[in-house]
Amino acid sequence: MSYLVAVFVLTLITLIVAQSFNFVFGLGALLNLAHLSAYAIGAYTTAILATEHAYPFWLYFPLSIFVSAFFSLLVSAIATRLSQDYFLIGTLAFSALVTALLINWKSLTRGVLGIPGIPRPPFLTSPFVSPELAFLILVIVVTLLSLAILLYLFQTPLARALRAQGELEAALVSLGRDTHLIRTLALVISSAFAGAAGSLIALYLSYIDPSSFGLHEMVLVLSIVILGRPGHFWGVIAATFFLCLLPEALRFLDLPSSVLGPLRQLLYAVILFGVVFQRRAVLFPAVRRI
Amino acid sequence: MENLAILPQLLMNALISGSILALAAVGLALMYGLLGILNFAHGQLMILGAYLLLFLSQTLSLPLLVAAPLLVFAGIFLAVTILHLTILPFRNRSPLLCLLSTLALSIVIESTLALLFGVNVQTLAVGLTPAIYQFAGVFVTSLQLLIVCSTLLILALVAVIMGYSPFGRAVRALAAHREGAVTLGNNERQTVTIVFALGTLLAIYGGVLVGYDQSLQPYMGTSFTIKAFAAMILGGLGSVGGAIFGSYLLALVENLAIGLDLGPWSIPAGFKDAFAFCVILLALLFRPEGLFQRGQRKF
Amino acid sequence: MLRVEELALKLGEVAILKGVSFQVAQGATVGIIGPNGCGKTTLFNCLNGFHRSAPGTIFFRGADISASSPYLRARSGLGRVFQNSGVFRSLTLYENLLVALEARDRVLFWNRQKVQHNRLIAQYLSDFGLSDKAHDKASSLSGGQLRLLEIARSVAVGAELLLLDEPTAGVSPKMKGDVERVLRKLVELGKTVVVIEHDINFIQNICQRILVMDQGRIVLDDSPVAIRSNPALQDIYFGGS
Q1: Residues in chain A within 8 Å Cβ distance of C87
Q2: Least C-beta-crowded within 10 Å: which of A11, A151, B19, C35?
Q3: Are B298 and C11 an interchain contact pair (Cβ–Cβ within 8 Å)?
């Protein structure tokens, strides 16, 4: 039972990350490799504020969202002016920078030792439900809220403009849209959700270290968005459940964790490649010269 | 002043790490200049080559004289396979697809290496104690001298081939017309394959040098890829000479920043990698407008 | 309405535009012709703001826009129809026009004027003969329909001066008539039109003035009749008689 709860919690947290990534990458064709850095920053913000400073949930949760969003603002300042290739390198550089800082800024993050003992919010203790179930309910509430907001965002004029600039930026600019602003909004909004998800994962795992937040996690999110069709809200939800529950089958093979980790990554990478290959005719139309 | 005393050593270190980076960056630049795609898995190819040599020389105990040519063949075979599997199918479509497929490839290579060799640090220089030379206050091992000299030789060779041979002319012609070339004729396919194999072999050589001089770990590929990108950006995306220049410049900046005693502003060694990333970001922030057509937003 | 002074552009080592100067009065229709590679589209790109560092000055509606970002130039009334179609093919016709109206009204998160927008879109679609395809993806349109949609979009955004890059390229002869009708209608409404074209007949019918470009310069600036009978034109297009 607690195993099912664990799987469900992780799947829902991944769903928040994936759907917000769907907004910026699926709709806007912006391959923001710093998305998971926002996730990491949200997690670390919560971890630091909850342990060292003993802030309450009502303080560190919004702050995690805010710090992640602010980080994304910095990324946008540099990256939104860049075309595809440079945008990728720019966000990649940011993500690598964040990882390097997490490892080396020991006074803040304790480096590779990580931050242990992140406490669950006290309002979750209740005589009616087990702590695991209570946390699951919290995650469900945050996920539903996030999905509701994202669903709304997917129908806004911003979303339409995002799709347009993803296809033909010069044309949208000629209609008078400030595409830098559009991209910045997309990055900041998606990172805010990633920060919220990061906060949840920190609370769930109660111990985080830099190794939990690498580029390889990006592969899972990318696979989800591509499998679920970039830009499709419900498709990405289905793909999240599918891809998160799939490797659980691996657990039935009694493998040591040193094998399980790389094997899981290998599986996701192969799936990503397979989906990109199979869908290559319809994914992201080739850039037209106008 | 202490800084002046260690400066020669820092310059030597920069020369060494710059050479390895140059080997990586040249291959990447060739591919970018020719096909306009960034091979995300380039760093992983370096490491893969080194692990292959590890396997051949240690697990199979083959002498270097046998292992080296085998490695070359393996490298060419790998290059051709990767080119046809993960790059060419996506050529005429959005460049995003190539990025995604090579990203996936990079993880596949990393995870496979982790599964086969474990995550523990390993080295190719088992049982080897290279001679150490000292001159003008600079310490350098014979291996490091080999790195610098062989790299400079190889780069000179590549420059000659690219600049003066018919093959080099074909490559430059293809690169100049890549905007118009939608499908690859047979001849062009051949050129692209050779260039990619060349770039891969250079990367593998660089990885092998890293394996001998430093150590190997399955997940170190990504930081090489990023640094090679940084070198390319510094020198001008798509320019091979620029990639070489950028590599040495980046190595110089890295080593000076870490090595020099700047008092309260000294940068701890752990931030060495972070430095390259900052360089990329600064370069992206201040790039002059309209310098390159491809990849440059004109507004 | 538009005044260009000594506009020049170098891409790398190659000089594409070499000191281009001309004026366009409000409500005028001006055509631009010239052999391939003479810099016509590049001129438009400069006017739009895609090469802001180019030397020279551009005045639009009295203001110096030489340093303005492209989106600001668009907001001040400068419209563009692209050579290779700037229509968003993954969006429907309705959405294409909606994006334009939302851009015009700067809405991002909530469109207060949805009803008015819908009405306007329906009107534009019917004016341009595209009503029955309102909710089809723009990728299903023919070349001529794509042109019409793009022009409709520029009108929806409120462009006062339209830069049209080869509006009849790839358009069937029947649709060329539709495009011509639309352009005349635009002029009737007081819009200023600058057209790059290869179809000299087409341009003759609607333009009061034609600029001939060659190798980055404007070499002739006159009425269509005068241009047609000018022997220098033969030289430019066919390299000497």
Answers
A1: 171
A2: A151
A3: no
Q: How far apart are CA B57 and CA C39, in angstroms?
A: 60
Take residue C210 and report the two structure tokens written for it: 């034609």
Q: How does pLDDT run across B56-115, given as a tens digit for each residue?
A: 888 888 888 888 889 999 999 999 999 888 888 887 777 788 888 998 999 999 999 999
- Band (A44; pLDDT cuts 50, 70, 90): very high
When pLDDT is averaged across residues A236-260 and rounded to a whole number, the result is 83
Residue-level pLDDT at C56: 87
Q: Which amino acid is at C70?
A: P
Q: How far is CA C30 from the centre of its chain?
A: 11
Residue C109, H or E segment:
none
Closest chain B C-alpha to C12 CA, distance in angstroms: 7
pLDDT above 70: residue B181: no
Asked whether A231 and A240 are in contact (CB, 8 A), the reply is no
Provide, as residue numbers in chain B, all residues whose Cβ is less than 8 Å from the Cβ of A79. Answer: 284
- Closest C-alpha to B291, from B230, B235, B226: B235
CB atoms within 10 A of CB A156: 16
Q: Find, in chain C, the residue whose alpha carbon is nearest to that of B292.
A: C12
Domains along chain C? 2-87+159-238 (3.40.50.300), 88-140 (no CATH)
Q: Do B274 and A92 touch (CB under 8 A)?
A: no
CA distance B64 to B53: 9
Write out chain B residues lying below 8 Å of C52, CB-based.
Answer: 289, 298-299
- Residue C98 at interface with chain A, using a CB cutoff of 8 Å: yes
Question: Parallel, antiparallel, or unpaired: how do β-strands C161-165 and C192-196 relate?
Answer: parallel
| Partners of residue B36 on adjacent β-strands | none
The H-or-E segment that residue B246 falls in is helix B240-259
d(CA A150, CA B243): 42
**C contacts of B239 (beta carbons < 8 Å):** none
- pLDDT value at A93 more than 50: yes
Dihedral angle over CA of C161, C164, C165, C167, nearest 10: 180
Start-end of H helices in A175-256: 179-205, 216-227, 233-245
User: What parts of chain C have a pLDDT lower than 50?
Assistant: 240-241
Supply the pTM of this predicted model. 0.88
Give the range with max mean pLDDT: A176-190, A254-268, B206-220, B222-236. Answer: A176-190
C117 interfacial to chain A (CB closer than 8 Å): no
